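Hey L., structure's done. Input below.
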Amino acid sequence: MIQKIHGVPEFLSGVVNPYNRLFMKVLAFTISLLLAILAIGCEKKAEESAKQLSGNRSVAFPGKKILFLDSYHESYEPNIKSRRAMENELKDTGASIVYRYLDEKNTSDTAILHQRGLAIFNEIASITPDVIVLADDPIMKWVAEPFLTNQKIPLVFIGVNWEYPPASQAPLTGQLEVEVLSKLVSDLQQFARGSRIGILTARSATDEKSISAYKDVLGISFAEQAFVTTFDDWKREFRRLQNEVDLLIVRQNSGISGWDDREAQAFCLAETLIPTGSPNLHMSPYTLLCYPKDNGEFGEYAGKTIVKILSGTPPQSLPYEKNIRSNRTLNTRIAKKLGITFSADFLESANFVSAFTGKIAFINSYHRGYEWSDKIEQAFLKSIGVSDFAGKDEYNTEGLHIRFFYLDGKKNPAKELVTKRSKETFSELNQWKPDLIIAADDDAAKYLVVPHYINTDQPVLFCGLNWDASVYGFPTSNIRGMVEVAPVRELIEFLVPLAKGKRIGYIGADVLSEAKELDHYKNTLKISFHDGGLVKSVEAWKNLYCRLQTTCDVVIILSYVGIPDWNNAEMEKFVINETKVPSGTTTTMIRRIALVSFARLAEEQGWWAGEQALAVLSGKPISEIAMTKNVRSVKYVHTELMKRLSIKMPTSLIDSSFFIGDGKTQ
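Output:
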């Protein structure tokens, strides 16, 4: 805390002569100068502190260990967010994190919880942590309170509901978890037929404590309360309460045995008769409104507090805090079912969900690090609400579980290898049982979808299939998608007037996708090529490229991915030195070795796949999804090649293009 200091500094008392104006002016100037220097110093320190708290990576704690004790299980979604946020705050600091899980959501047996708590405590000595994070109430009850109150390791609690933990001799600080239930109830009452409030939730110590706080702290009275342990009990109580109360708080479902996300979603949509709400975001598929806390806030707090402690701040000198972030979330399908209309102000401040839950398997024909498919993945994730693309194989996000599988068809294109990986993927999918499969690019369609999923009950969306899906027998009753087409005719029509003749050549990697691309250039678009080839090595590519400079007037460059030992910087230098005729491409990643790029947007494929995936998971039959093709593109001009060829580009292209080689675009 920064405190204001009032009055004149003591070291100046007794030196002021009130009759000496000159002295007074000099003194006033000196004081002003000192205060200005002091202010600058304080501002600098405050700025440094703010940077540190916002995740400044200049702090380093090599060899330090953080022990994160989680009350629940590893796949519990709210705490996944907390852990990720903490990891992000501590990234690049050199500190390591060890996790242990009490798994309280899956058992209420006190003897088992005591044994687990004792086992966790007994491990602490061997782990030798520098800071311990205590996440949620059960870990406080079964580990912290019985075992850690007198030890000296700094403790940081997060997610402890409503009440400060008991007094402790241990160095302790933390952040309480509170819920904005009063606001949720107030908003639901606008649409209720009366004032009777009910609550339905899983039976757990946390839920019982929270409901007591709702009554004692918030002053909310419940006409009906229902604690359940099984999904059948939950459905029975949910249906009963529709007629017993006027609005229903559906707190959470963690620990309810037999819970089925998809069945619960359909059940709530069919059975909801009154306004429903929850303080937990993972309940948004089942309730009209959610006012969830941001679990990432707990992790951010933990990470920043750990940085302070490892930097020398005693935990007990840090005041307890409370979470403050919350987001209004509206389930549009339940709103429509109830016939509820919201004001413009209400809608403007809300997030929207359409109750999407399920498993999505995303089959990438290629490998992570391939620019085209990376961009498809990123756009797909963003379109379904995952903004933190981190290049992972698996994402869990509020009801959606997404897994990525890679066939590596560019780096290892041999048929037997891709077939083997496809069979392995099919075996994994059989065990995981996704609700939807997304097949990106041709290898996934040819080697996985065609042999295993045509005319089955498994919904499949494809994207990025070059030119024609009918060669794979698509569409079928269970398969729909977006075909990828290239504006190659428009590209050639642009390049020929810049050239000395009309002879067209081509060059690319000898892989399935480029062979199919070339086939459609020739047979679908009826483009006649004078010379060209698909090659397997860098040396062969260089030899062919040099030959095309003398045999052709325009060169179309297909993807080089699949050619071993390709070095982008080296090949760009080679192309700049050897180019004698205009060249073009329709692929973004080739933009550094072509004069002009009319590039397809990989993101368009991902956006479409994400939008249609949400439609399928919200109940739209896949057979009703229309087949489509991409329409968007972006243009690039390589200025070094333009200078080498002494070509002046039309103003219309200059105004609508990005530039390569002038520092504007990489």
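The mean pLDDT is 84. The longest strand covers residues 155-161.

-- N.
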